[in-house]
Amino acid sequence: MKTLLSLFLVLFFTIDVFCQGCSDAGFCTMGAMRPDQHRSKFINLKLNSLEFTQHLGFTKFGDYLLSWIADVDFRINPKTTVHLKLPYTYVFNKMPSVHGIGDISLSGTRIFVQKENLQVAGTFGGKIPTNGNNLTHNGLPLPSYYQTSLGTYDLVAGVGVNVHNWLFSTGYQMSLNSTKNQFLNFNDNGVIRNSFDGTEFFDEAKAYANSKELKRKPDVMFRIERNFRVGRISANLGLLNIYRLANDEVTNFQGKRIEILNSKGLTISGIMGASYRFSAHSAIKVLFGRKLTTKDKSPDGLSREYVNNISYEIRF
What we know:
By secondary structure, this protein is mainly β. 5% of the residues lie in helices and 51% in strands.
């Protein structure tokens, strides 16, 4: 155990942001699917909890995403918990910056099996949009990467299995509607055009995929994670795999529905995290992440090259 922990700490401080947190639509941190799940045979830690997170993400276009996230868990009974998440997001770089309240996540988690070295839990819930993914700048529609909401109602379901110091979780997420986004980027007889034609942001806007009335197709997720616990210190290393089942759909400049080729496929990310528990009622956590492989196109604005999180948790 000491050798494994030493190896983790070496990786933690020497690798340049080894892994990625979550470039999906949010289900990899819901309930039974969240990383670094703590169980104790000595202390009942299944209390209500409030967690505040400072999130930083970086996209392949050089965009920065800062989010301040509040997570609340309410325990209904020893085996059932309701989870609520509310983020506030600020996106900035070369395009006009935006900020605002992000999508609301609401889910319920039920523990089906709870033994000393085995726990099986299931989560069902969804996400509620706070806008239509249609924020604008001077009346011009911004791409999905510059939106504070996904603009869709989503259903989420998943299962998590804790075996000794290993976590295996899988999940499914499906959007129920198309966005109201109106950003266009297209090739018109060899000439590149986009929604910012004739403005100072035209060249920057060329980098982003057409996302007009985007219909995001379902995702499936599989996470495998190894935890290391010594006293008050916990650490985790893992892989997060997210597969988009079909190509996303958008409306082109002629008003026709088309597929975004190569927007389906697998994204693999590495996960590295650590936490220090001050007591049974408070802890501080850090998470680093980096994308390892990905599908060619991500018109939904979810792709992240890396993410960093720092969180403070209060249990009551």
